[in-house]
Amino acid sequence: MKLPLYLRVLLLLTLVGCGWLFWQDTPDSPDRAPPPVVAKPLEPQPEPTPAPPVATVDLFPAQTWAPPPPPRPVDTSPPKPPPLPFTVSAQWRYENQSKIIVLSGNGKQYTLCNRCSVVGRIVPGKMLDANYRLDSLTDTAVVLTYMPLKHVSTLRLDKH
Protein backbone atom coordinates (compact mmCIF):
# COMPACT_ATOMS: atom_id res chain seq x y z
CA MET A 1 0.00 0.00 0.00
CA LYS A 2 1.43 3.27 -1.08
CA LEU A 3 0.61 6.41 0.96
CA PRO A 4 0.48 9.82 -0.66
CA LEU A 5 3.36 12.14 0.09
CA TYR A 6 1.43 14.56 2.30
CA LEU A 7 0.27 11.70 4.58
CA ARG A 8 3.82 10.39 4.91
CA VAL A 9 5.02 13.86 5.90
CA LEU A 10 2.28 14.22 8.53
CA LEU A 11 3.06 10.78 9.94
CA LEU A 12 6.74 11.64 10.22
CA LEU A 13 6.00 14.94 11.97
CA THR A 14 3.68 13.18 14.40
CA LEU A 15 6.36 10.59 15.28
CA VAL A 16 9.00 13.29 15.75
CA GLY A 17 6.64 15.29 18.03
CA CYS A 18 5.83 12.22 20.16
CA GLY A 19 9.52 11.34 20.52
CA TRP A 20 10.46 14.87 21.52
CA LEU A 21 7.70 14.90 24.20
CA PHE A 22 8.85 11.50 25.48
CA TRP A 23 12.42 12.69 25.98
CA GLN A 24 11.33 15.96 27.60
CA ASP A 25 9.07 14.25 30.16
CA THR A 26 11.78 13.00 32.55
CA PRO A 27 11.50 13.02 36.37
CA ASP A 28 13.31 15.86 38.16
CA SER A 29 16.74 14.93 39.42
CA PRO A 30 17.37 15.14 43.20
CA ASP A 31 19.73 18.08 42.81
CA ARG A 32 16.94 20.12 41.23
CA ALA A 33 14.31 19.25 43.85
CA PRO A 34 12.60 22.24 45.42
CA PRO A 35 13.69 23.17 48.94
CA PRO A 36 11.44 21.80 51.71
CA VAL A 37 8.83 24.17 53.02
CA VAL A 38 8.47 24.53 56.79
CA ALA A 39 4.80 24.76 57.70
CA LYS A 40 3.85 27.01 60.56
CA PRO A 41 1.01 25.93 62.85
CA LEU A 42 -2.43 26.84 61.70
CA GLU A 43 -4.38 29.44 63.61
CA PRO A 44 -7.94 28.47 64.52
CA GLN A 45 -10.29 29.72 61.86
CA PRO A 46 -13.60 31.33 62.85
CA GLU A 47 -16.57 29.14 62.11
CA PRO A 48 -18.03 29.98 58.74
CA THR A 49 -21.50 31.46 58.83
CA PRO A 50 -24.07 29.34 57.05
CA ALA A 51 -24.91 30.58 53.60
CA PRO A 52 -28.45 31.84 53.06
CA PRO A 53 -30.69 29.21 51.50
CA VAL A 54 -30.63 29.31 47.75
CA ALA A 55 -33.94 29.26 45.96
CA THR A 56 -34.12 26.20 43.82
CA VAL A 57 -35.76 26.11 40.46
CA ASP A 58 -37.54 22.96 39.41
CA LEU A 59 -36.26 22.41 35.88
CA PHE A 60 -38.52 19.43 35.32
CA PRO A 61 -41.88 20.06 37.02
CA ALA A 62 -44.56 17.40 36.96
CA GLN A 63 -46.61 17.60 33.82
CA THR A 64 -49.78 15.95 32.68
CA TRP A 65 -51.63 15.48 29.43
CA ALA A 66 -54.98 16.19 31.09
CA PRO A 67 -56.53 19.45 29.93
CA PRO A 68 -56.61 22.26 32.49
CA PRO A 69 -59.84 22.65 34.43
CA PRO A 70 -62.34 25.01 32.81
CA PRO A 71 -62.35 28.54 34.19
CA ARG A 72 -64.91 29.35 36.80
CA PRO A 73 -67.94 31.08 35.36
CA VAL A 74 -68.12 34.75 36.14
CA ASP A 75 -71.28 35.80 37.94
CA THR A 76 -72.74 38.50 35.71
CA SER A 77 -76.07 38.71 37.50
CA PRO A 78 -76.82 42.08 39.04
CA PRO A 79 -76.08 42.40 42.76
CA LYS A 80 -78.96 41.59 45.07
CA PRO A 81 -79.94 43.73 48.03
CA PRO A 82 -79.87 42.29 51.52
CA PRO A 83 -83.14 40.94 52.94
CA LEU A 84 -85.46 43.59 54.31
CA PRO A 85 -84.38 44.17 57.95
CA PHE A 86 -87.73 45.65 59.04
CA THR A 87 -90.77 44.02 60.61
CA VAL A 88 -94.13 45.52 61.47
CA SER A 89 -94.35 46.07 65.24
CA ALA A 90 -97.70 47.89 65.35
CA GLN A 91 -100.32 49.51 63.15
CA TRP A 92 -103.42 51.53 64.03
CA ARG A 93 -105.84 54.21 62.93
CA TYR A 94 -106.86 57.14 65.06
CA GLU A 95 -110.29 58.75 64.48
CA ASN A 96 -110.59 57.97 60.75
CA GLN A 97 -107.14 59.34 59.94
CA SER A 98 -104.57 57.57 57.77
CA LYS A 99 -102.94 54.44 59.11
CA ILE A 100 -99.90 54.76 61.40
CA ILE A 101 -97.34 51.95 61.22
CA VAL A 102 -94.40 51.20 63.51
CA LEU A 103 -91.50 49.28 61.97
CA SER A 104 -88.70 47.80 64.02
CA GLY A 105 -85.32 46.96 62.56
CA ASN A 106 -81.63 47.67 62.92
CA GLY A 107 -82.17 48.10 66.67
CA LYS A 108 -84.57 51.06 66.24
CA GLN A 109 -88.28 51.72 65.85
CA TYR A 110 -89.61 53.91 63.06
CA THR A 111 -93.07 55.52 63.02
CA LEU A 112 -94.48 55.83 59.49
CA CYS A 113 -97.52 57.83 58.44
CA ASN A 114 -98.81 59.91 55.53
CA ARG A 115 -100.15 62.82 57.58
CA CYS A 116 -99.90 62.70 61.34
CA SER A 117 -98.59 64.78 64.20
CA VAL A 118 -96.50 62.07 65.89
CA VAL A 119 -93.08 63.28 67.00
CA GLY A 120 -90.27 61.66 64.98
CA ARG A 121 -92.56 60.45 62.21
CA ILE A 122 -91.30 59.44 58.76
CA VAL A 123 -93.40 60.46 55.80
CA PRO A 124 -93.05 59.20 52.20
CA GLY A 125 -89.89 60.52 50.55
CA LYS A 126 -87.84 60.55 53.78
CA MET A 127 -85.04 58.15 54.79
CA LEU A 128 -85.52 55.50 57.47
CA ASP A 129 -81.81 55.04 57.95
CA ALA A 130 -78.76 55.48 55.74
CA ASN A 131 -79.90 52.88 53.19
CA TYR A 132 -83.72 52.80 53.03
CA ARG A 133 -86.19 55.43 51.82
CA LEU A 134 -89.95 55.29 52.40
CA ASP A 135 -91.60 55.61 48.97
CA SER A 136 -95.26 55.11 49.74
CA LEU A 137 -97.56 54.03 52.53
CA THR A 138 -100.98 52.50 51.85
CA ASP A 139 -103.47 50.58 53.97
CA THR A 140 -102.05 47.26 52.71
CA ALA A 141 -98.33 47.84 51.98
CA VAL A 142 -95.21 49.83 52.80
CA VAL A 143 -92.95 50.44 49.82
CA LEU A 144 -89.24 50.95 50.64
CA THR A 145 -86.27 51.57 48.32
CA TYR A 146 -82.81 50.21 49.09
CA MET A 147 -80.84 53.26 47.94
CA PRO A 148 -77.38 51.79 47.12
CA LEU A 149 -78.96 49.55 44.43
CA LYS A 150 -82.21 51.47 43.82
CA HIS A 151 -84.08 48.24 44.59
CA VAL A 152 -87.76 48.61 45.56
CA SER A 153 -89.15 46.26 48.25
CA THR A 154 -92.71 45.95 49.43
CA LEU A 155 -93.63 45.04 52.98
CA ARG A 156 -97.20 43.68 53.05
CA LEU A 157 -99.37 44.83 55.96
CA ASP A 158 -102.30 42.47 55.49
CA LYS A 159 -100.14 39.56 56.71
CA HIS A 160 -99.48 41.23 60.07
What this model shows, in words?
The chain has 160 residues and is α+β, with helices and mostly antiparallel strands. It has a domain at 87-156: SH3 type barrels (Roll), CATH 2.30.30. Helices cover 12% and strands 23% of the residues. The chain has one helix at 5-24, and strands at 87-92, 100-105, 108-112, 121-122, 132-137, 141-146, 151-156. It has a four-stranded mixed β-sheet with strand order 1-2-3-4, with no helix packed on it. Strands 5-6-7 form a three-stranded antiparallel β-sheet, with no helix packed on it. The longest helix is centred in the N-terminal third of the chain and has 20 residues, at 5-24. The protein starts with a helix and ends with a strand. The model has no long low-confidence stretch (mean pLDDT 85). Residues 31-82 are annotated as: Disordered. Keywords: Membrane, Transmembrane, Transmembrane helix.
Tell me the total number of β-strands. 7
SSE pattern, N- to C-terminal = HEEEEEEE
CATH architecture of the domain at 87-156: Roll
By CATH reckoning, the class of the domain at 87-156 would read: Mainly Beta
* Beta-strand fraction estimate: 15-25%
Transmembrane segments: 5-23
Region (Disordered): 31-82
Keywords: Membrane, Transmembrane, Transmembrane helix
Biased composition (Pro residues): 32-53, 66-82
